Structure prediction request, 227 residues.
Amino acid sequence: MNIFEEIKSFDKRIENIRPKKNIDQAKLYSAGLSAKLNQCYFALHKLELLSVKDDHSTASTAAEVIDIYAQVAFYCDTFCVFLYSSLDVLSQIINQIHQFGMDEHQVDFKQVLKNLSTNHIGTDLHNQFLKIEKSRAFKNLHKYRNCSVHRRQIYIQEETGSIRHTPGYSVSSTGPVPKIVRTLCDDPYDIRPKIIQNRIIPDYLEDLINNIEKEIQNIIKILPEGL
Prediction:
């Protein structure tokens, strides 16, 4: 069962829970969670298409509003913002299901974790939230998202060149083909960015969503229980 099927299963499980208002709100947010994750996958799809294009090898068209490099930066920012947002939306679901009474305008991942750490310490839900918070994937995602939203553009290094193949071998092309490698900086807070950890776009972002999505799915599985 993938994450989207798990969310549909969750919607069915909570049908008979009362009050109905909370359930309707929870379903509204579960639809929002699916939407956020789909938007992340759309951003990844666009980055995959852009991974074979650059501003030197691709002819510009009148339809393009920003150049290829700027498009890559845009979809990286979008991906990080929406993936982090999926955790905030998940937190809205939990606030409704467990009737924490938190103002929805103030609900986010860290606020719900704080509530769990104060009032529901040691529960399955609390342990799952702690697992996310302590994960490397979350810590890196939090930095990229925070840098993009509150600080500056995330540093991305782009290397371009060409690759040639010996004629006669079973490869897609025997002539020079463009080589484009884009790498996210290790730490977006660093004014002097490093790329030692080789976080290639979009591969690294795919790993990021796989790790975060797995933990979201583990939480959805234990809802509406978990406390």
